[in-house]
Write a structure and sequence with these properties.
103 residues; mainly alpha; 4 helices
């Protein structure tokens, strides 16, 4: 694990960080950078370690990082014209149809 003492994190927080890091690695991010991003996400969600003596102990935080993706996707789509969205949908449909025939 990169920098910092992780002894105040719960088993669940460590599993969460591993799962997040795995997702980044699958998308081609280096292992070190994936770990850094994963722990940053856990900290954003939980406010730090939740074991005794940790600043995040016992507080519900609303998991802000877990809700971020939908906002980003929606904003990107809203900035495109109807024609652009339609062209993209038609292209996706053609691609799916081609891939269906190749299997």
């Amino acid at each position: 694990m990169p920098g910092g003492d992780k002894s105040k994190y719960t088993d669940k927080q460590e599993r969460k960080a591993d799962h997040i890091a795995g997702g980044y690695e699958k998308r081609g991010v280096s292992e070190k950078e994936a770990e850094r991003r994963a722990w940053a996400t856990v900290n954003k969600d939980d406010g730090g370690g939740k074991k005794e003596g940790g600043s995040g102990r016992g507080k519900h935080t609303g998991n802000p990082a877990a809700h971020k993706g939908g906002d980003k996707g929606g904003a990107a789509s809203a900035n495109r014209s109807a024609a652009e969205r339609s062209a993209s949908a038609k292209k996706a449909a053609r691609t799916r149809a081609q891939h269906e025939h190749h299997t």
